[in-house]
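hey
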C-alpha cells in the first residue's frame, strides 16, 4: 500500500492499524515514537510533514479528550479537548493533505459518543461530532487528499480497561480493519461506523 503515516501508533487503535497495514509500510508517529509529534501543536505537525515528504496515506488515531462530570468541567478541560482531539485532527488534514499522493487518503478517528452521548462525556461528544462534520465538509472543499473517518463503537479493550464487560465491544483488531478499508477505498467525506459482524 505504500508509505503510510500512522499518528498515534503507540496507542491501542494505532498499534493495531500498524499491524493490519504491515509494519514495513508504516511510519509510526506519536509523542513517544521515533517520529515525534504533538497534535495539539500545529508547528509540531507541520515539522513532521516537512521531515517525511510525500506519503501514500495518513491515519490519525491520536487525540486526547477528558471525561468529567458536567459541573466539574473547566475552561482548561474544554481548551485541552478542542486543541487535541478536534484541532489536532483538523490540522493533520489541513497541513498533511498536500503531502499525500494522488489517490491517497487521510483517515481520522471519531467515536461512538458523537452519536450516543453519555453523562460526563459532553466534551468528547462535542469534539467527535465536530470531527465528523469537518470530514463531511472536506467533500465539498478543494482538499488535496481524500479525507474520511472511522467511528468505532465501544472497543472491547477500552471497556475492559474501564472495568466493564468487554463482550459488547468490538476488538481493536477489527476496528483496525475498518481503518484499512477507509484508507484504501473510503469515499471522500465518509464516516465508517465500526461495529461487530
Amino acid at each position: 500500500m505504500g508509505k503510510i503515516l500512522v499518528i498515534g501508533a503507540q496507542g491501542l487503535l494505532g498499534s493495531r492499524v500498524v499491524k493490519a497495514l504491515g509494519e514495513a509500510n508504516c511510519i509510526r508517529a506519536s509523542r513517544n515514537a521515533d517520529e515525534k509529534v504533538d497534535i495539539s501543536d500545529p508547528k509540531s505537525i507541520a515539522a513532521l510533514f516537512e521531515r517525511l515528504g510525500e506519503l501514500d496515506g495518513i491515519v490519525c488515531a491520536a487525540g486526547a479528550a477528558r471525561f468529567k462530570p458536567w459541573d466539574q468541567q473547566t475552561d482548561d478541560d474544554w481548551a485541552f479537548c478542542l486543541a487535541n482531539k478536534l484541532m489536532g485532527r483538523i490540522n493533520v488534514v489541513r497541513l498533511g493533505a498536500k503531502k499525500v499522493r494522488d489517490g491517497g487518503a487521510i483517515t481520522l478517528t471519531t467515536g461512538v459518543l458523537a452519536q450516543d452521548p453519555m453523562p460526563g462525556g459532553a466534551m468528547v461528544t462535542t469534539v467527535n461530532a465536530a470531527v465528523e462534520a469537518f470530514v463531511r465538509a472536506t467533500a465539498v472543499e478543494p482538499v488535496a487528499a481524500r479525507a474520511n473517518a472511522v467511528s468505532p463503537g465501544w472497543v472491547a479493550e477500552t471497556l475492559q480497561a474501564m472495568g466493564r464487560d468487554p463482550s459488547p465491544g468490538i476488538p481493536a483488531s477489527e476496528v483496525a480493519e475498518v481503518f484499512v478499508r477507509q484508507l484504501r477505498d473510503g469515499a471522500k467525506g465518509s464516516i465508517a461506523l465500526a461495529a461487530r459482524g
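The chain has one domain: 4-194. Residues 4-194 form a domain with the Rossmann fold fold (CATH 3.40.50.720).
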